[in-house]
Design brief:
- By secondary structure, the protein is mainly beta.
């Protein structure tokens, strides 16, 4: 019997044994949170949701709820500071109540498929911390002539 610990373990028939591992969630529980939106046709639609408790954001998804999306529409998701929670507005010459500091865009120009209304997921292999007081921003850019109904969900650990 070999004592090489790098060797792949095998069962009695000699086949490799593969075992799943659990992800470390730092003692936090998963929380799925969704929102319903109706994007105004032919415009950029921005929806901000304040973060009320610190969380570790992992990903999420969006889903079209009607047949009104067109080729050219896209979604984006980001974390923004609107209230100078992090104290960075002075550094960048920004004004509270006027400016928004985008801290992280974790989905950039994901063009929607107007013929596929199934859930479109975006999940990372890790999570990042979002402080209370910041905002989760969902953006839907509509290039069509009819309003679009959609939902956006996030997966975070709290």
């Amino acid at each position: 019997m070999s004592t090489d610990l790098r060797q792949t373990p095998k069962n009695a028939d000699g086949a490799p044994i593969n075992a799943t591992t659990f992800e470390d969630t730092f003692g936090l529980a998963p929380m799925w949170e969704g929102e319903y939106h109706e994007a105004t046709a032919g415009s950029t639609n921005i929806y901000d949701t304040v973060v009320t408790t610190e969380k570790r954001l992992r990903g999420g998804w969006y889903e079209l709820l009607d047949d009104n999306a067109v080729v050219g529409d896209y979604v984006e998701f980001s974390v923004v500071d609107k209230d100078d929670v992090l104290g960075l507005f002075v550094l960048f010459g920004l004004t509270v109540g006027v400016d928004v500091l985008e801290l992280r865009k974790y989905v950039k120009k994901d063009y929607v498929n107007p013929v596929n209304r199934t859930r479109q997921s975006f999940i990372g292999n890790s999570a990042f911390t979002v402080c209370a007081g910041l905002y989760l921003r969902s953006t839907y850019v509509s290039t069509g002539s009819t309003n679009v109904k959609f939902k956006a969900n996030t997966l975070a650990y709290e």
